[in-house]
Design brief:
about 210 residues, TIM Barrel, eight-stranded parallel β-barrel, two-stranded antiparallel sheet
């Protein structure tokens, strides 16, 4: 199985094109004002318009109102929505778009049961749990704690970088890997070399899996 890739927290056209040229499957645009990687709808519109074909655009929201999400969708032709707050399954499914549900690996929480509540999600994104922070922490969680009975495709996030993504793919075998801070020069600004190194590492591992060498 080929592991897909997403570079999240894109804030500039240059970073989006760098990721696209390096072979990314999807980019993430953060519509959460408290994030250092936040973009406005106007900024996102320009980024999406500059992308070449076959790059999926994902919009990330945290406890936004229905009106706020709808207002973004009126301006930005997003392919997928990603919810990181306390959104209900009904809310997530109400926009006529595929969606990912992000869950933080909080101790004592039955992640499989939480994921099952979002049966309409296209994928479940698992991220590190840091109190008061809705993702993008750069922290890695214990991959061995991931439940084996998730019914939706798994998107692995949290503390990934060019150095550990191969190990993550081998140990977790996710449908996709999602990176933000691990390929940055500073908050919201990607490091082109790290982006290329991350995507190349995934591509090499995928190729090895396809030809049976690993």
């Amino acid at each position: 199985m080929r592991v897909r890739t997403k570079i999240c927290g894109i804030t500039t056209i240059d970073d989006a094109l760098c990721a696209a040229r390096a072979g990314v499957d999807a980019i993430g645009l953060v519509f959460y004002a408290k994030s250092p990687r936040a973009v406005t709808a106007a900024q996102a519109q320009k980024i999406v318009a500059a992308l070449p074909p076959f790059v999926t655009t994902v919009g990330l929201f945290v406890n936004a109102s229905h009106a706020e999400v709808s207002a973004v969708l009126e301006q930005v032709p997003l392919d997928v929505l990603q919810f990181h707050g306390d959104e209900s399954p009904e809310f997530c499914a109400s926009f006529a778009r595929p969606y990912f549900r992000a869950l933080r690996m909080q101790p004592g929480v039955d992640i499989a049961a939480r994921a099952a509540q979002y049966s309409t999600a296209q994928g479940i994104l698992l991220d590190a749990w840091v109190p008061g922070v809705h993702g993008g922490t750069g922290e890695r969680f214990d991959w061995a704690s991931i439940p084996s009975d998730l019914t939706q495709p798994l998107i692995l996030a949290g503390g990934l970088n060019p150095e550990n993504v191969t190990q993550a793919m081998q140990q977790v075998q996710p449908w996709a890997v999602d990176v933000s801070g691990g390929v940055e020069a500073s908050h919201g600004i990607k490091d082109a070399d790290k982006v290329r190194q991350f995507l190349y590492a995934v591509q090499i591992k995928n190729a090895q899996q396809c030809d049976g060498t690993l």
